[in-house]
Structure formats: C-alpha cells, structure tokens
Amino acid sequence: MPTPVGRLTVLYDADCPLCVHLRHWLLRQRQLVPLDLVPAGSQEARRRFPALDHASTLREITVVGDRGQVYRETSAWIVCLWALADHRAKAHWLATPAGQPFARVTVLAAAKWREALKGPDTRDGRCDDGRCEVPGPPG
Question: Is it the case that residue 17 has pLDDT exceeding 80?
Fold first, then answer.
C-alpha cells in the first residue's frame, strides 16, 4: 500500500523569477495537501533534508513528502498540482500515459525559459550561509 502524503515541501530556486512567481501562485491556491515552500539550498532546506543532494535541488524542482517521498522534475510539478483543489483532476490526467508527454514538454519549456531568464548558474553554495532572500509577491 502506498504511503499517504499529508504535507509536501516544495524546494524552489529563490533566485529564479519564474520559480518565485510560481511559489506565489501556489500559495494563492486552495490546498488539499498543505505546501511548505522553502528556498532550495538554504539552511532550512539542509536542516529539514540532510540526506538530499542540495546542488541538484537548485537545478530541478524537488518536492519532498512528509513520509520521505521525493519527487523531481515532471513528477514534482504533477504532485504540486495534485495538492491543489482546483488542479487535482488535471494532475491525475498528467500522470496518465496520455498526459505524461504534455507534462514533460511543459517542464522542459519552463526549464528553457528559466535558463534564459537567469543565465548561467554560477552560484555554488549561494545559500550556504542561510541568507537566501525570498522576494515578496509582485505589486
């Protein structure tokens, strides 16, 4: 029997405008499963999840369930949608063989856009001192 998920932690790149925008969007949604949004690579992320490869969490979205489940890339986006009341049905469809290609293309497009917005990644350890700042919501 699969382990139930009661809470999810989304590790997102606080230096990425697209990621910060999506963070704010997630926080505005009605959540069926509570979401904690934590800057990837931060002291808080390292404290909560010492066994994770934190360098990889800065390259790809990572979501961690309260029972130790780890979701990366496409699966991470799908589980985020699954946690939201208005998007759970879409998440179920994206997890099917018919929806998986659409989900994968969407994640690849977002990664390309993120790369174009941010430029080359030269931040090795930029959150090690715990000073990752989370910008406030736009406007």
Answer: yes
8-12 and 35-39 as β-strands: parallel, antiparallel, unpaired? parallel
**Phi, psi (deg, nearest 5) at residue 36:** -100, 130
pLDDT digits (tens, 9 = 90+) for 87-131: 999 999 989 898 887 777 777 677 676 676 665 544 444 444 444
pTM for this prediction: 0.77
- CA 11 to CA 66: how far, in whole Å? 13
Report residue 25 as tokens.
């969007």
Dihedral through CA 53, CA 27, CA 4, CA 40, nearest 10?
A: 0
Q: Are 39 and 127 in contact (CB under 8 A)?
A: yes
- Angstrom CA distances, 119 to 9, 17, 116, 123, stand at 26, 12, 6, 11
Tokens 């699966």 locate to 75
**Tokens 């990664």 label which residue?**
111
DSSP 72-135: EHHHHHHHHHHTBTTTHHHHHHHTSTTTHHHHHHHHHHHHHHHHHHH-S---TTTTTTS----P
